[in-house]
Amino acid sequence: MTSALLLSGGMDSLSIAWWKRPTHAITIDYGQKAAITERTVSAAICAEIGIVHHVVSVDCRSLGSGDMAGAAADAAAPASDWWPYRNQLLITLAAMKAIGLGAKVLYIGTVASDEGHRDGTKDFVRMIDELVLYQEGGLRIEAPAIGLTTVELVNEAKVPARVLAYAHSCHKADIPCGNCRGCNKYVESMDSLGYGCRTS
Q1: CA distances for 98 relative to 74, 132, 164, angstroms
Q2: What domains can you pick out in the chain, each with its CATH number?
Q3: Which of 1-5, 62-66, 80-84, 118-122 has the highest mean pLDDT?
Q4: Position 32 confidence tier, pLDDT thresholds 50, 70, 90
Q5: Radius of gyration of the CA atoms of the chain, in A
Q6: Nearest to residue 60, comparing CAs of 27, 32, 92, 94?
Q7: Distance of CA 8 to CAs 36, 76, 99, 199, Å?
Q8: % pLDDT > 70, the chain
């Protein structure tokens, strides 16, 4: 079965790539601050595993808010890194590409800790799957790690440390800022895995 993965180059989607070995990986450049590095890291991961890599570029900067857009947080934001309807946008764009590639499943890298945002919940994944499936093409949306923490996912996927080191999780820049939720999660996860990222 032809499959695709929404690949950002972060720890979670990287681990899904290593675990599920999809036919295609799709990286979305939607105007986020870390887009260049996300594209570079994703391409390197795909080359390592032997996955066909695609980049979809759609400039949505004027619609963004918070850390990922380099702008003030929206009044509705539950956290500083919230970009309105971002996962819905990314899944839709990736699904549009995936359907043209003949994919029947699109994997997303949602993990248990993403439930801090509504678009990271099991209910959201169920609803977006139903919405996409309702339309033509028979494409399913699956979040195989939604019940796992990042550390549990890395262990389940058996991602080697040298590959995990590719991951870029920063929300604010192409070079890790060390001071955002993405960077904090990366350091905490690597430390929990015993890879000694802590500097203090």
Answers
A1: 30, 12, 25
A2: 3-192 (3.40.50.620)
A3: 1-5
A4: very high
A5: 16
A6: 32
A7: 11, 24, 19, 26
A8: 98
